[in-house]
Write a sequence for this structure.
């Protein structure tokens, strides 16, 4: 069982003054509209945690391990991983999960995105029973493998990777390599996404939503500026496209300090001048529970 902390709880845990300010600002007409959703999400998450804990305790034969600060790899010997939070919690947990299926519970549907979740806390009993009875529906989400200079740095990317300057406000310079095509580009960076990630940031930036079972990758250059060649500076030619599982797709950094942001801001991999980053689709899938199997007609 992996759970997140609410925004208010995180601020309290770090001693952030904003937590106290949020509590005191409820009656302030300026701050109340932005504080109310935080407090509502905190209350909803707290109630969801209590309900899920109660349901799990009712299954006395189950051995449950609770974790908040997840680190390391979750052994495949576990039968199920349950997350309480939203998509961010699932993304965080997914990097530690190999073959074990995952059941996502959205603890605050009114304020939390739950594309990967199977339901809310009130549905945990039905979802868990379906899994224990062998009647749960699942979906395989193919992941991405990322290598730097030939060495695997992450083989469990569920959503996307952002390649950019270590300071995202700075210009990013690199060589794009797609099979036999090469182009020197200057832009704000590049999104590389799986099918699961195609509904997230890359879609907001203008990308295409892909079938959820697809193994291919998709890339999209952020704010392309120019392409540098022996003909001078021209508009970038390859700014978006699909990458097949057998394609060679890579980026070679031509700046001293770049970053790969993997599935959000928390996993940042430093990239140096000359490093070649390759991206491969169709990596070992994450198995998501999506709900009980539909009833069989009589």
């Amino acid at each position: 069982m992996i759970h997140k902390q609410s925004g208010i709880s995180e601020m309290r845990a770090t001693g952030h003054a904003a937590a106290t300010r949020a509590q005191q600002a409820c009656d302030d007409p300026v701050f109340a509209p932005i504080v109310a959703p935080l407090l509502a999400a905190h209350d909803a998450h707290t109630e969801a945690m209590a309900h899920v804990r109660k349901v799990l305790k009712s299954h006395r034969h189950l051995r449950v391990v609770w974790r908040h600060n997840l680190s390391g790899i979750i052994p495949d010997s576990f039968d199920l991983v349950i997350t309480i939070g939203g998509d961010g919690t699932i993304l965080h947990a997914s990097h530690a999960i190999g073959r074990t299926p995952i059941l996502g519970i959205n603890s605050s549907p009114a304020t939390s995105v739950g594309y990967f979740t199977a339901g809310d806390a009130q549905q945990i009993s039905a979802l868990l029973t379906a899994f224990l009875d062998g009647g749960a529906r699942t979906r395989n989400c193919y992941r991405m493998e990322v290598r730097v200079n030939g060495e695997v740095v992450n083989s469990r990317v569920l959503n996307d990777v952002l390649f950019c300057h270590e300071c995202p406000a700075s210009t990013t310079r690199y060589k794009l390599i797609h099979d036999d095509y090469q182009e020197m580009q200057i832009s704000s960076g590049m999104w590389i996404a799986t099918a699961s990630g195609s509904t997230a940031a890359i879609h907001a930036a203008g990308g295409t939503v892909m079938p959820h079972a697809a193994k291919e990758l998709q890339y999209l250059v952020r704010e392309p500026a120019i392409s540098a060649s022996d003909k001078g500076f021209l508009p970038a030619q390859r700014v978006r496209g699909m990458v097949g599982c057998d394609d060679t797709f890579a980026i070679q950094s031509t700046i001293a300090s770049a970053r790969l942001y993997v599935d959000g801001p928390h996993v940042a991999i430093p990239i140096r001048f000359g490093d070649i980053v390759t991206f491969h689709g169709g990596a070992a899938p994450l198995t998501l529970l999506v709900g009980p199997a539909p009833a069989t007609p009589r």
